[in-house]
Amino acid sequence: MPRLVLLRHGQSQWNLENRFTGWVDVDLTPEGEAQARSAGEQIKAEGVHFDRAFTSVLTRAIRTCTLALQSAGQSDCPVTQDWRLNERHYGGLTGLDKTETAELHGADQVKLWRRSYDIPPPDMAPDSPWSFANDTRYAGISIPATESLKTTLERVQPYWESDIAPLLAGGQTLLVAAHGNSLRAIVKLLFNVGEAEIVHVEIPTGNPLLIELDAGLKPTAARYLDQGRAQPLPLAA
Question: Of the residues 41, 49, 87, 200, which is catalytic?
Answer without folding.
Answer: 87
